[in-house]
TrEMBL record:
Its EC number is 2.5.1.75. Residues 36-39 are annotated as: Interaction with substrate tRNA. Belongs to the IPP transferase family. GO terms for molecular function: tRNA dimethylallyltransferase activity. Monomer. It comes from Chryseobacterium geocarposphaerae. This is tRNA dimethylallyltransferase.
Length: 306
């Protein structure tokens, strides 16, 4: 039986993945599965640049706004849910689109996560104490020292990711980046990875502009409504944690907004580092023309035949 096809649209934050995914979904008359871990949460629409109502109406999307920030959702659970959804979609479609810039979540779908040990209670306790007494910087230093490769791509503001990586390294005496690189099992679908690229200055300009647009759309009010959840993992993320510092009186608003821009650019840089290591991504340039899109479709169809 002919294998089904998954087209995975990847790239840094703010590069235009949503638009390309919709264009591809319309061309192949199919549906979109999101692997953007921040867009799972329905209360965080503005700060995560979730697809608009108009965009959602252009093609069916899955895993957008499907959770509340109060729900805990692990990457392992996502892997299971996403594969189940893909199997359902493949019953009616030859091709499905995957899109998102959460590198580990894309990896979970296309390769599978390695079986990692459960959290060790003593390690967790010890790490929690480090976090409380010495702060996030100490955890970042530990990850840098133990696993420079993972440090280069991890979201440094996500303390849960840092805690998990250190715990696993302590338990296994192996680098976390190596453990998660081991593919669990092969998938029974073909994967074609499509990226969008732009000169770095242009990407950074887009990111800065996007933050300004988010503020105009009401990011401040959205963050204010979520302030009571600021200690939850979902909110410990760029665009929200900076505004919580403004609400606490630590920073003024202009500085908080400039920090959102800076941290968004840093995150984009980490994403670029991750994708540069891959040799299986076919790139389209930012602001692609109809001809570029037609050439991309031709490339994808050739890959299908292979």
């Amino acid at each position: 039986m002919k294998k089904k096809n998954l087209i995975s649209v990847v790239g840094p934050t703010g590069i235009g993945k949503t638009r390309l995914a919709i264009d591809l979904a319309k061309h192949f008359n199919t549906e979109i599965v999101s692997c953007d871990s921040r867009q799972f949460f329905r209360e965080m629409k503005i700060g995560t640049a979730s697809p608009s109502e108009e965009e959602l109406a252009e093609a069916p999307h899955h895993f957008i706004g499907n959770l509340s920030v109060e729900e805990y959702y692990s990457i392992g659970q996502y892997e299971e849910d996403a594969l189940k959804k893909l199997n359902e979609l493949f019953e009616n479609h030859e091709t499905v689109i995957l899109v998102g810039g959460s590198m580990m979540y894309e990896k979970a779908v296309i390769e599978g996560l390695h079986d990692l040990p459960e959290a060790d209670e003593n390690n967790q306790k010890k790490l929690q104490e480090i976090l409380e007494n010495e702060g996030m910087n100490k955890l970042q230093e530990l990850v840098k020292e133990l696993d420079p490769e993972y440090f280069a791509v991890v979201d440094l503001h996500n303390h849960r990711r840092l805690l998990r990586a250190i715990d696993v390294i302590w338990q296994t005496n192996q680098k976390y980046s190596e453990l998660i690189a081991v593919s669990q099992d092969s998938r029974d679908f073909n994967v074609i990875r499509i990226g969008i690229e732009a000169p770095r200055e242009e990407l950074y300009d887009r990111i800065n502009r996007r933050v300004d647009i988010m503020m105009e759309k009401g990011l401040l009010e959205e963050a204010k409504s979520l302030e009571k959840f600021k200690n939850l993992t979902a909110l410990n993320t760029v665009g929200y944690s900076e505004l919580f510092k403004y609400f606490d009186g630590e920073w003024d608003l202009d500085f908080a907004v400039s920090e959102i821009k800076k941290n968004s650019r840093r995150y984009a840089k980490r994403q670029l580092t991750w994708y540069r290591k891959a040799d299986d991504i076919h790139y389209l340039r930012l602001g692609y023309s109809q001809q570029d899109f037609d050439d991309l479709i031709k490339y994808i169809n050739e890959q299908f035949k292979k």
